[in-house]
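#struct-queue
[09:14] JT: dropping the first one here, sequence first, then the structure tokens:
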Amino acid sequence: MSNCKHGLLAASSLASLVLLANPAIAQDQTGNAVDPVENQDPNAAPATRGGLSEIVVTARKRAESVQDVPVAVTAISEEAIATRDITSVEKIAAIAPQFNVGRASNGSGAQLTLRGIGSSSTSIGIEQSVAVVVDGAYYGQGRIIQEGFFDLERVEVLKGPQALFFGKNATAGVIAITSKSPEFVPEFNAKAGYEFAADQWRLEAGGSVPLSDQIAVRIAARYSKMNGGLYDNISVNRDYATLDIATGDVTSHIAYPAASKAPGEEEFLTRGTLLFEPNNDLTITLKAGYDHNTVNNSSWNYVAYACGLDSGNSQLTGYACTNDFVTHQNNIPADIAPVFPLSKEDGSLFNRYESANVTGNVAWQLGDMQLTSVTNYQWNNNQWACACDFQSSDAGTWATEDSSWKAFSQELRLLTQFDGPLNFMIGGLYQDTRRDFDQYIMFANLSDSTASPENEFLATTKTSFTKGETFAIFGQMTYKIMPDLELAAGARYTDESKDSYFAQPYNNAALTGIFRSPDAADGLGEVNAKQSFKDLSPEVTLTWNATPDVLVYGAYKTAYKSGGFSNGGINSQLSSDPLGDLTFDKETAEGFELGIKSTILDNQLRLNLTAFNYDYSDLQIDFFSSAVFAFQTLTADARTRGVEVEFEYAPYALDGLNLHGSINYTDAQYTKFPEGPCYAGQTAAEGCSIVSAGGGLRQNQTGATLSVAPEWTGNLGVAYDMPVGTDYMLGFSADARYSDSYLPSAFNNPLSRQDSYVTLDAGIRFGAEDKGWELAVIGKNLTNEFYVTGVVDGPSTPVASSPAGTKADQLGFGTLPRTVMVQASVRF
């Protein structure tokens, strides 16, 4: 490990010296601001063979070369998206090594982490610190990872706080995704692929048709189905003795193993786009999409990879804990399933995600000013049945859930493009949201025959909603102090309110000492919350074009993420403050960033350097407090700082060759967390010795490393395209991604440690020189590396009979194993 780190340091130092010694970049001097970018021809041939291609980004809500924008951004072109099969948020992590995605079954459904800053997956009310923006509209829910992305123009990974242009909930960064728009020439493309490991077929097609010289449409769709799976589920029939608390009778119920191959995904996506350009000054784009995704197990990627017993066996199942793509889960007992709310008739586990969205973009050029409007409506519904001990045991816990989200937003921006030194942008945003949540939980050892049929086997039910409303105004002024020196200053003011409700309508009588009913005598059975948040987030950037070929910038940035309400929490009879358990405060960030962007060797070598230091106040951290049997969201102060170096080399001497990579150092730690949660099984000698103000034992986590925050990450890739004869092209690519070790646990649990790893993606393509057809083989994670990007403690571990100091089983969010896909595509 030390040799690897020394090598990375040496490479970083060398790259930095070259960057400072020999800067040169080709800058876009047009100043043309188009949002979205529709006047670019992605198929245009380069003026010269070889050399670097320019990528246009909208990191400042205007079209700029990626090398001209004073923001740390990794841009993924349309060609790279196709070559590397970037079809989901998870797959973006292979190209941006500081970005990690953990797929969770319940709660928010995801943990997105960038530069060591992320959001807990266990609370559905916590929005992601890494915001996802699709076609200019904000999608802050963790379930965005269920969306399949296809027919894309580009992807941008904006690192660090991005409040000014992207609003609330972008304290760690932004993933900006832009789909293709229609063209005014007929165009059609289709792909058919087969992936061997999952026995998965995929069909995709898209096309643009001009209806007139002012109107064009594009329609695209994708369908895929796994006949197999990527994870093995190994379990046995489990027989549960269920006590009827009304009669005292005990009955037997058998839970059969869940699907042996998971996730068995089936997905259908479609998007239609209408483009209207009545003249050169007005562009109107309307996009509507639909997504339907089902899998055969909501927690298919939960793996017991590290366990607390010295034997290395799971305390729940007895199986050996292992770093492998294997899980152990059972369906809901088949004789209970027909009356269990939201359950499938046979009790099989599942996750069904469905979404729809409509986005309208208007760009209107008014002389030296541009008016932009972005209108969005989004809706999604997620239902699942979960083996919610995540490794099915003889205790048996199952749940089902139905949650919906809908949001309407309207954003307006006015951007000036004067020839003089002073320009400005001003804008406003309105957003209206609603989340509805229902959950049903069963413990296999309890029933109540006097309850209604749908409640007979339930332990408790939950119902909740949150209505939100956001108003924001923002603006930025840019002033050229000198022709090569520009000062930009701006701020965003946000006023947000949330009204929420939570209750547990039904509780098994045997559990009323744990779960509080709506009619509880203490009057705390129904929780109503009215929250309001106000924030001003300023930003200042100084940009210097040191030569026509080098950009140097320094920025002071701040950001804000709203507080909220944990719709899926617990109103515990053991807690005297359920309102406090379910609500949490806002999160803020501020700090500095310095960057150098350059291209040297006559547009053959691009080298970028970024250094950053950001402080976070009230970082939102969700955990289960065993002292009060309730989920609570605590806040802590934290810091992330580091250095990033990236390069890309495309020599003229060998046309078609492209070398690229990055080296990144990140130090992310808590700076103030004196009463952090203890991890399960932590002893007083290990630091679990602080009595918190609210009761229960805590640990001092000040100085501890944040969750999923590797110190060193990097990637290295090569691509080469060569002509074969006069009519054909042969290409190959290989990309390696490295991550240092890290702790997936937010509570510094040493048992959770993920060791360092390297993954390798590679592909080979053969096709027509004019790209009319192509055959490809695309391999991902060819090293078949198992690693986790998030973790939860195994429920009910350590078990009561465990020796003192036994740690909880660590159930990690595993990523995808080796996949190899063959693909045929045509385009005309």
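[09:21] JT: and here's the second one, same format:
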Amino acid sequence: MANLLFHGSIRKKIIVLVLLATLPAFMLNLGTALLHRHQAIKSAKHQTLESLHEFSEIQRRISDSTRTLLQTVAEIPEIRELNPHAAQITLETILKANPIYTNAILINLEGNVVAAGTGNATNLNFADRKQFKDAISTKKFAAGEYVVGKTSQKSIFPFAMPVLNANGNPKGALIIGINLNHYRDFFKRSNFPENSFFGLCDHNGNRLFRYPKKENIEVGTPIQEAVFLSAKTGKNPGMIVTESTDKIVRIIFYEPLRLSSDTEPYMYLFLGIDESEIQQGADLILTRGAETGFISIILTLAIAWFVGGRGIVRHLESLTETVQKIGSKDFKNPSGIDYSDGEIGQLGQAFDNMVNLLRKREKERNNALASVRESNERSRTLLLNTPSGICLVNPVSQFIEFMNPAFMDIFNVHDENLKNLQLKAFHPQKDSTKVDKIFEKHILHEISFSPALPAMTLNGREICVDVSSAIVTINGRNLLALFFTDITAHKHSENELIGAKEVAERANRVKDEFLANISHEIRTPLNGVMGTLQLMQETPLDSEQESYVEIALGSSNNLLKVLNDLLDFSKIEAGKLDIIEEPFELESLIEESVNLFQFQARENNISFHSHIDPSTQKFYIGDIGRIRQILFNLIGNSIKFTESGSIAVQVYSLPHRDPNKERLFFSVEDTGVGISDDKIGYIFESFTQVDGALSRKHQGTGLGLPIVKRLVNLMGGNITVETEVGVGTTILFCVLVTKTDYIDIQDKKDHQRKKSDTPLRILLVEDEMVNRIMAQKLLEKAGHSIICAQNGEECLEKLRKHSFDVILMDVQMPVMDGFETTNIIRNSKEFSKIAEIPIVALTAHASNKDLNKAKLTGMDEFVSKPFNKEVLLEVLQKMHDLNK
């Protein structure tokens, strides 16, 4: 018994001593495992943050390219002039070339749509949208917020660019919507771990995009408040660990995006990874370290047990075989020791439990390794297949240490060129200094971007690239990561667009000059013809002679109408026709329009009547001249194409969403020849007539209805036609007008009644003899006294010798033209006493440009040739009355 106790005591001492000897090694092994676990977690977080940065680079490039595109389009003259037709074509082209855009819209300063790329947003208003208000107030590129598209009814993210006039003031804005669903495909290709997600929110924290989408998470709803506050106030970029709405604890990495460094973020990006996915691999490292130490202790104790008692050798051999199986990763067979055999049985049981634990851990390790391999493959696939050229550069030596296939393709780099390449190898020599300085900024700043940078491939081809960069840390070293996008083709297209724009502008200027010159050359002799005919009407004529004069005047007026139609059409096409709003009386407008054609209707035995619906007001504010022009064209057409029967003009009022406005609805109905179905589509086309034959019965330029349609559109209305061959035609149109009261019109009429017919002393400055004699005779017959001058110098000489009530000044004259003469009268000391004398421009230049130039020079009124006697006399009397 004593001998047994002695051996038991020795065995225990040996076990204690061996255990104490192996404990430090076990603790060291466990500490190393903990350190490796920490590094594994840190590496996984860094890789996830890099993935988020790749997403941010995509969005940054989208916003930068959108800024460049809108900035270019906003400079196009047709866009700056808010030309609906030209803008429609441009915006449609943008959408076709860029599928990522949902719609492109041009809006005016009131937020109303001028043109849309999809063509179906013309009745919408965007004045309440953030991107519009920011673009107008800052005059800069602006981002919006979560919004449901007014036309697409889908969630989009919008940007806006102001459209500025020549003085740099906002005239309108371009708005473009971005479809964020392209991130879905990018996320799928990245193969992130299960339960991962990618999301976007706007500056208010409203969700813009989330993939994968959850049933209880809707776009447009706020994201988690804690996550948004962390992204808004935390480190940039940064992360937060939180439990998501689906009860999964995630590490969420975030990064804000800005349009510039001095602006608030307009968007936040989020990439969430299941925390257990990251910790699982790290825990495996720790478990394996602990298991290794535990096995070492167990083996040591087994040896001690063997030293303490030789009777356990057989069991130790069994345990040794089991350990060998574990070494060969065979966890199927237990130790074979009877668990009831005292301490050896307990040891065997513990050993078998450890085998089962190792079997479980091995399975977990294999799963973790598969996840790591999948993550590495995902990163490798992303790096190899991204369209952006990526390289890593030593910021000190500027040697390139890594480049992906896209970079090699952009810069024509082959395998034999990979060694000892510096960044400056891709800098063009002529721009080397400039490009070197730009890349110095990239090296100094954590994140940088340089658009449209010149570069050169290894085979000497000059290209243009967008470059962004970031400082990254790899294995403890700071490297410069550069991301290149080849925009050579885009830049070439942009240059071609600018060239085409310049060509179009030159052609437009040539066309304007031609129309101005041809107008002047026709109006000058026509003025003499019409003036002489008006003089003849003042002389005694027999009935036959009166009819001849009336025919000649009618033909002259028709020629003048053709000329005015050409000029109006040219102005409309160029978007330069102004709508002038003034008070008018509806009944007077209809009476004037009907009375003008009553004589022709009676001659053709046509019944002609009008009707104004009681629902209409008596007075409105609108462009009465253009409405009258529309009615004259339509009624004139009805007279022309109706041989017998009737013509009816009717007016109704239609409500408008603005209580201060109404739509006036006009109809002109006749029982004329009608229009066949195969011709109805052409009647609003320029220079087109239903009957195009040389022998056609009804002559004309084919501009009347096209001008009518464009005028109606300019006044916020539309036009339609109902017709049947042999039955007749009804043309219906509406225009937008403003309501007013009786006082506005009455005040105007009272002012007109106050005008007098006082004889005036008039200085007539006209170089063309026929026009000078004709104008002099007309004015003298009206009771005025006339002194003539043939050019500006003679005009100044006459002013030195005589006093006058008003000057009637031609514009285009030899020696000294009307503009120069007016400038001298208004500004020289010699004529300071009469500097305020009324000056009326009398010219064959009849465009708005000429009118504006006359007013800027100092002329008070503008009468275009050929003029009507009553119009000229009224203007002269008006000048005298105002100058009293």
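[09:30] RK: nice, looked through the second one.
[09:31] RK: The chain has six domains: 40-61+182-277, 63-178, 312-368, 386-486, 496-541+755-884, 578-741.
[09:31] JT: good to know. The CA atoms of residues 306 and 560 lie 127 Å apart.
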